[in-house]
Design goal:
By secondary structure, the chain is of the alpha/beta class. Helix content is 50%, strand content 10%. It contains nine helices and five strands; from the N terminus they run βααβαβααβαβααα. A five-stranded parallel β-sheet has the order 3-2-1-4-5. The longest helix is centred in the middle third of the chain and has 12 residues, at 77-88. The chain is globular and about 50 Å long.
Length: 165
C-alpha cells in the first residue's frame, strides 16, 4: 500500500479548514514523524492540533538520526524528520509547503505536493465543493503565501478561474 508522509503545514492548513479527514479520504496510509506532531501542538500561528486529532494518521519516527541531523542543517525539525521518514518508507509522496523543504525533496527525488494541490485533488474527488473560499481563509488566518500566478493556476485546475486565458 502506498505511503504518504506529511510535514506540518498541510495538516495545520487542513485543521484550520476543519478538513483533516481529507488526508484519510485521499490516501490509504498517511504518516507523520514526532517532530511534526510537536510542531502541530505548539504553533507559531494557526490552530493547535493535538495527536488525538490525527485519527487514522500513523506517527512514526525516522530511524536514521544521522540523516535527520544532516537535513536539519537545511530545513526545520518537522521537515527534516518528514523527509527522512519519506525516504525510509519509500513514500509515494511527501506533503510539504515550505520552499526550502520542497527543494530538498526535489534534490532527493521525492515526489511532493502541497496544501493547494491537496485541495484541488479533494475537489476533483468530490470531497469539497470549492477551493477559492479555502484559499481565502488560509491567506487571511494563516498568512499562507502564494503569488498571483500560483493562485490562478490552482483555481484553473479546480475549475474555479473565471478570468479569460
Amino acid at each position: 500500500m502506498p505511503v504518504v508522509v506529511s510535514d506540518t503545514s498541510p495538516i495545520r492548513a487542513l485543521a484550520l479548514l476543519e478538513r483533516i479527514p481529507l488526508l484519510n479520504a485521499l490516501f490509504a496510509d498517511v504518516r507523520v514523524p514526532p517532530a511534526v506532531v510537536q510542531e502541530l501542538a505548539q504553533p507559531r500561528i494557526g490552530p493547535v492540533v493535538r495527536a488525538e486529532q490525527l485519527v487514522g494518521i500513523a506517527i512514526q519516527a525516522p530511524q536514521d538520526r544521522g540523516r535527520v541531523a544532516d537535513l536539519r542543517r537545511r530545513v526545520d525539525a518537522g521537515e527534516a524528520e518528514a523527509i527522512a521518514l519519506a525516504l525510509e518508507v519509500r513514500a509515494e509522496r511527501i506533503l510539504i509547503d515550505d520552499k526550502a523543504g520542497r527543494g530538498v525533496a526535489a534534490e532527493l527525488h521525492l515526489p511532493f505536493s502541497g496544501t493547494l494541490a491537496l485541495l484541488v485533488l479533494a475537489k476533483h474527488s468530490g470531497l469539497v465543493d470549492a477551493v477559492r473560499p479555502m484559499i481565502d481563509r488560509l491567506r487571511a488566518e494563516l498568512n499562507f503565501y502564494m503569488d498571483d500566478g500560483l493562485e490562478h493556476t490552482i483555481l484553473r485546475q479546480a475549475g474555479e478561474d473565471s478570468s479569460s486565458d
